[in-house]
Amino acid sequence: MGSKITIIGAGSVGATIAYTLSGENIASEIVMIDINKEKVQGEVMDIEQGTCFRDPISIVCGDYEDAKDSDIVIITSGIARKPGQTRIELTQTNVNILKSITPEIVKAAPNAIYIIVSNPVDIMTYVFTKISGLPERQIIGSGTILDTARLKFALSDHFGVAQKNIHAYVFGEHGDSSFIPWSGAYISGVSVDEFYELMKARGKDIEAVDKEAMLTYVQKSGGKIIANKGATFYAVSRSVCQICARVAASSDSIATVSSMMHGEYGIEDVCLSTLTILGPNGIQGKLPMRMKKEEIEKLKASADTLKSVIAQIEW
């Protein structure tokens, strides 16, 4: 028996999440909610017509009350980022949308695990945490799970090694103040720098990783995709479905998702991404990773960047 998953927002990201989930064995029931009913009805019809190739699944266009007994609620509502626009510039508009949604959905599904995807995701996760009244373990921001996926792809492409062998992460804001803690970047138990030396010694034609260029690739990929095709939705949808799978699993796992900080690395009262333990009971805490002093300072700087935006929000 799969999970009941409600998706709020039927834009490109919400619809693609629904489509991706329809091909997985995570959900047995999907409820899609959006102010634009015709759009939802069209998305539901398009998606459900391809479900004959899998075990039975229910996909419906619903209202907030239809979210009752949801195991997971995914919030994607908000204005999409325009070419050249930063995530931070979206803040007030999308915060206002979230404030209108929150009481309705929390009333309908008070026990669900909530996955916040709307941008700027760290701010939205913080606001939802503050206004929802839900236990913090039930609130997961998609955070830098997508940034981490981009990093793993880039390292895999650079070294010609399978992504599943790469353990490297992006910490901080899902945005321009993010950073890569290279002290915790490994390829099958070998540091990235050591792996380069080992492959070089074996005669592989390979260059050392340009770490600044790698970070730029991670940070600017979204903007490049938006400039080229107008929106990003495939990779983020796969990332969100991965969070759903981990929440629906029988045991905990580790992911770079955004949640409230309570003194970890000397940071409090802000949501950002570090290694986080999550599973069927939601967030179970942070996994402290040994970092260099300068890396911790970068994490603190990212937190300060987010706090400066939070301070400007009209609640």
UniProtKB/TrEMBL annotation:
Reactions catalysed, as given in the entry: (S)-lactate + NAD(+) = pyruvate + NADH + H(+)
SUPFAM superfamilies in the cross-refs: LDH C-terminal domain-like (SSF56327), NAD(P)-binding Rossmann-fold domains (SSF51735)
Binding site for beta-D-fructose 1,6-bisphosphate: K152, H167
GO molecular function: L-lactate dehydrogenase (NAD+) activity
Ligand binding (substrate): R87, N119, P120, V121, D122, D147, T148, A149, R150, T232
EC number: 1.1.1.27
Binding site for NAD(+): V13, D34, K39, Y64, S100, V117, S118, N119, S142
Enzyme class: oxidoreductase
Keywords recorded for this protein, A-Z: Allosteric enzyme, Cytoplasm, NAD, Oxidoreductase
Organism superkingdom: Bacteria
Residue ranges of domain Lactate/malate dehydrogenase N-terminal in the record: 4-141
Entries under InterPro entries matching the protein: L-lactate/malate_DH (IPR001557), L-lactate_DH (IPR011304), Lactate/malate_DH_C (IPR022383), Lactate/malate_DH_N (IPR001236), Lactate_DH/Glyco_Ohase_4_C (IPR015955), NAD(P)-bd_dom_sf (IPR036291)
Regulation of catalytic or functional activity: Allosterically activated by fructose 1,6-bisphosphate (FBP).
Pathway(s) of this molecule: Fermentation; pyruvate fermentation to lactate; (S)-lactate from pyruvate: step 1/1
Catalytic site: H174
Subcellular location: Cytoplasm
Every Lactate/malate dehydrogenase C-terminal domain range: 144-313
HAMAP family named among the record's database cross-references: Lactate_dehydrog
Family according to the record: Belongs to the LDH/MDH superfamily. LDH family.
Subunit composition and interactions: Homotetramer.
Function: Catalyzes the conversion of lactate to pyruvate.
Protein name as annotated: L-lactate dehydrogenase
